[in-house]
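Same chain as my last thread, 244 residues:
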Amino acid sequence: MATISQDRLAKVRALYHGSHNENGNGHVEACAMEAVAYVAGEPWSDHPKCACPVIGAFMRLWNDCLPDAERTTLLLPLIPRLVGTRGSKNLEERRALMAADWLVRTHTPAWLRLAGLMTQADALSGLPEITAFAQVPSIRPAIEAARDNAAAAWAAARDAAWDAAWAAAGAAAGAAARDAAWDAAWDAAGAAAGDAAWAAAWDVARDAAGDAARAAARKKLALTQAELQRSALSLIERMIVASN
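reply #2:
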């Protein structure tokens, strides 16, 4: 069983972008998963053996896309909870399915709604829970329809003055959650559901995020990002407590 060094945990006061070399005995500069390895007493790595690789994939990408202050606030409390989350391959697949389901039915609809594509958002959020990768081909038409409409929305709005709002609000939270969910699902399950179906899911998440951000006002974008941050934290919590 993995154990947590309280002395080491006390030295992790902030989380940082990217990968780092092992630090000295004072200030510890680490990303989220390096911090997990450190407090668990493992060799320095961002792939700690004590942690579930699906959760680790999610955390690495989310960590690197968050602004400094938000990264520490959101992710630092999770560090001790991730120690000891590694389980069976069946548990990894279950967690990957949770990430894929969140990507398709929660994350993408939030951006579609921000873009004003309510029908497409409802079509995805109303899909049945993804509990097996064999389901993915059956939901491909809804995913592709959302992707096509997101592209149309961007074509209609591309002349709007979106640059300032995008730069000020930042795409970090949305991009992080999107990429992390995708990476977690892909790493754990590979292309079992078929490359084309997974590519469609990825494309609609990417396109909807970009189109919504470009078409939305700063306040609405910030609200969506905050909503998705809370939702991603809830996803991590559910992954942590999941069992075979």
